[in-house]
Write a structure and sequence with these properties.
Elements (H helix, E strand, L loop, with lengths): L3 E4 L5 H12 L3 E6 L6 H10 L5 E4 L5 H15 L4 E4 L14 H29 L2 E6 L2 H5 L5 H21 L4 E8 L5 H4 L3 H8 L11 H12 L10 E4 L7
Parallel strand pairs: 1-2, 1-4, 2-3, 4-5, 5-6, 6-7
The structure holds acetoacetyl-coenzyme A (CAA).
The site of acetoacetyl-coenzyme A has 22 residues, from helix 5, helix 7 and helix 8.
Length: about 250
């Protein structure tokens, strides 16, 4: 029977590429979408037209009860989640001087609380079955910081601590927990950066001189989900065109 892979925020940017890759590898692919997303049905139809039979459920990843209800339904309708990709995330970029408590809270809740909220729903089952993969999508900016992203960088850095601690707790149970740290990938999130900032401040920092491709990140997620990656746990794998090395 094929394994169930659940990708949060799988309808855009990196998430869509991850869904496509995982489907190609034979997983039953589930994505969550924000309850306020009015285009979810259109996306599913578009994907169906391309031959992808994805399952999609509304879920506010920043809300524990919403995550519980979502994963309960997925488990009942499709089976237990074997691979969880914590991908959903947002930006509220602005200098610290301009940042309000609301801008801080919404990013922490969506990008970091969500990792607890979703992982909590699936971890006991993974441990009981003796197999599971949790892949947290962090960012180069959680490693090195970014101008205008105190909230985002803090949330993304927080994922690393979570990953390492949980990996220790479940490493003897057949469950791996890893983080990936993509650099600047050609998604809507990156395209929202003012062109002048992208050209003058960001692209010059990328030795490969280009943005990454969502498919390149999806390939890394697929590797971490695979059997061959069983010995990789508590790791943080950078994928950033050489922008940040350590
Ligand atoms: N490095 C250094 N200085 C910078 C800078 C940078 N990256 N960006 C802006 N500045 C400087 C400006 O040159 C300006 O300097 P002066 O006052 O001397 O002219 C000063 O900071 C203020 O700049 P702005 O007037 O542009 O300030 P703003 O408040 O209007 O905008 C900003 C600031 C929102 C941070 C804007 O610069 C911005 O959007 N930057 C991009 C932030 C970014 O990299 N986000 C990543 C999004 S993609 C993502 O998050 C995915 C991922 O994981 C990688």
């Amino acid at each position: 029977m094929s394994r169930v892979a659940l990708v949060t925020g799988g309808m855009g940017g990196l998430g869509e590429a991850v869904c496509i890759k995982m489907a190609a590898l034979g997983y039953k692919v589930v994505t969550t979408y924000s309850p306020s997303n009015t285009k979810a049905k259109d996306w599913l139809k578009q994907m169906q037209a391309q031959g992808y039979d994805f399952h999609a459920y509304p879920c506010d990843v920043s809300d524990f009860d919403s995550c519980k209800a979502c994963v309960d339904t997925v488990t009942k309708e499709l089976g237990p989640v074997d691979v969880l990709v914590n991908n959903a995330g947002i930006t509220r970029d602005m200098t610290f001087k301009k940042m309000t408590k609301t801008d801080w809270d919404v990013v922490m809740k969506t990008n970091l609380d969500s990792v607890f909220n979703m992982t909590k729903q699936v971890m006991d089952g993974m441990v009981d079955r003796g197999w599971g993969r949790v892949i947290n999508v962090s960012s180069v900016n959680g490693q090195k910081g970014a101008f205008g992203q105190t909230n985002y960088s803090a949330a993304k850095a927080g994922m690393h601590g979570f990953t390492k601690a949980l990996a220790l707790e479940v490493s003897r149970k057949g469950v791996t927990v890893n983080t990936i740290s993509p650099g600047y990938i050609g998604t809507k999130m990156v395209m929202a950066i003012p062109q002048e900032v992208l050209d003058s401040k960001i692209l010059p920092q990328i030795p490969q001189g280009r943005l990454g491709k969502p498919e390149e990140v999806a390939g890394l997620v697929a590797y971490l989900a695979s059997e061959e990656a069983a010995f990789v746990t508590g790791a943080n794998i950078s994928i950033n065109g050489g922008q940040h090395m350590f």
